[in-house]
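ugh ok so i messed up the first submission bc i forgot one of the chains. this is the corrected input, ALL of the components this time, i swear. 465 residues overall. if the numbers dont match what u have on ur side tell me asap before i send this to the collaborators (the ones from the other lab, u know who)
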Amino acid sequence: MLKTVLKFIVILFLLALLFGLFIPILLIKTVSANHLPSYEGYVNDFANVLSDDFENKLENKLFKYDQETTNQVVVVTVDSTQNDTIENYSIHLAEQWKPGQKEKDNGILMLFAMKDHKMRIEVGRGLEGELTDIESKHILDDTIRPLFRAEKVEEGVDRGVDAVMVAIATESATPTASENQDFPWIPILIGGILVIIVIAVFSKHTPLGGEGDNRIRGIWVPKNGSKWGSRSFGTINKEFTVPIIPAAWSSGGSSWGGGVSFGGGSFSGGGATSGW
Amino acid sequence: MKIFASVLAVVLLLLVVIVSTIVGAYNSLVGQREQSRTEFANIETQLQRRFDLVPNLVESVKGAMTQEQSVFKAIADARTKYAGAKSGTPDKLEAASDYQSAIARLLVVMENYPILKSIDTVQDLMTQLEGTENRISVARQRYNETIQVYNQHLQSFPTNILNLMWSFEQMKRFEAVSEAQTVPKVNFK
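and heres the new structure output, hopefully the right one now
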C-alpha cells in the first residue's frame, strides 16, 4: 500500500516536472503571435480597393513571376495600420508571412494603407542589393504617388509592381544565411523517453513493475476502465499540446493560405516608406 | 530484491530528469546568449552604416546651415563618445542613443531650410538614413525580444538556482530614446 502511494507521488512529481519545465519553453516562443491577418495569395486586398478582375490578373502575373524567378512579390492593401507605424506593421506582416525562398530571402512586400495615405515597400534581405532603399523610394514617389493622387489606384499598383519586378530582375538574389527556428525535438524526445520509462517501470509485465493495485494501474492502461485517468490525459492534450506545438512549429517554415505558400524568406527592415 | 530494483529505477529516473534539466538549462542559456550577441552585432552593423551616412549628409547641408553649428558639434561629440565606448556595454548603447538624438535634432532643424529638400543628393541621403533607422529599429526589436526570452529563462525556476554556480548575467534592453522615434518621419510634400 505504501509502495503504491509512493509510486503515485513519483508519477505526479515527474508529470509536474515534465509540464513545468517544457511547456513554458514552448509558450515563450508563441508570445509574438498576434492579430495580423493571414494571406490569401500574392494579392491581398483587405481594403477592397481593387476590382476582382484586376486582382485576378495581378495574382496571375505574380504567380507566373514566382514560377519563373522564385521571387515572391506580395501586394497588400489595408484601410489603416491602426495606431502602429506603417514600418512596424509591414515588418511584422513580412515576418509572419515570410514571402521569398528560405535560402534566397527574395521576397518583397508592398503595403498600401489607403485611409492613412501611406505606403511602403518592404524588401527581403536577399534583394536589398538589387532594390535599394533609394530605388524603392523613387518607385513610390515617382511611379505610384502621382497615380494614387489622381485616384488611379489599380494603375498605380500595377505600375509599381512592374517597376519592382524590373528592379529585381536584373540579378538573381544572392543566397543569405537565415536563422531557422527548429522544432523543439529535444524536450519532446526527453519527455517521450520519460513517459516510456514511467510506463515500463509501473507496468506489471516488467520485472521492475511489481504488482500494484488496479486503480493506480488504470491511469496508465486506460482500457482497464479507469475513467478519470484517461479523460484527464485527454484534456491535457486538448488544452496544451494541440494549440501550442503547431504555433511554435510553423514559425520555422511556411504557413498556408489560399493555395499559395510562401517560402520562408527573412526581412531586416530594408525598403522605403512614402505617402500620397 | 524487488524493492531494491524499484528504488533503483526511481533513483535512475530522477537522475535522468535532474541531469537533463541541468544540461538543457545550461545549453539553452548558452544558445540564447549567443543569439543575443549576434543580434547585438546586427544592431552595431546598422549603427556603423549610419555613421558612414551621416557625415555625407552633414557635408551636403552644412553650407546652407551656417547658423546651426551647435547641432553639428553635438553629432561630432556623440560620435566620438560612441567610438570610445567598449562594444556590447551599456555605455555603447547610451552613446548610440545620444547620436540618435543629435541626428533627430539635425532633421528637425533641416525642416527650416526647405531649399535643402529639393536637392537630389540630400533627398537620397535622407532616404538612406531613413532606411538605416528602420533597420536599426528592427534589429533592436529583435534583440529585445531575444534577450527577453533569455532574461526570463534566467529568472525562472530552476535555472535561477542553477545559475548560482554559473553566474550568467542578464542582458540590458536597448530602448529607443523618445526623440529618436520621430527620426524616420521626414515628409517631402
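quick check: Chain B touches chain A through 33 residues (CB under 8 Å). that seems consistent at least. The CA atoms of residues 46 and 135 of chain B lie 7 Å apart.
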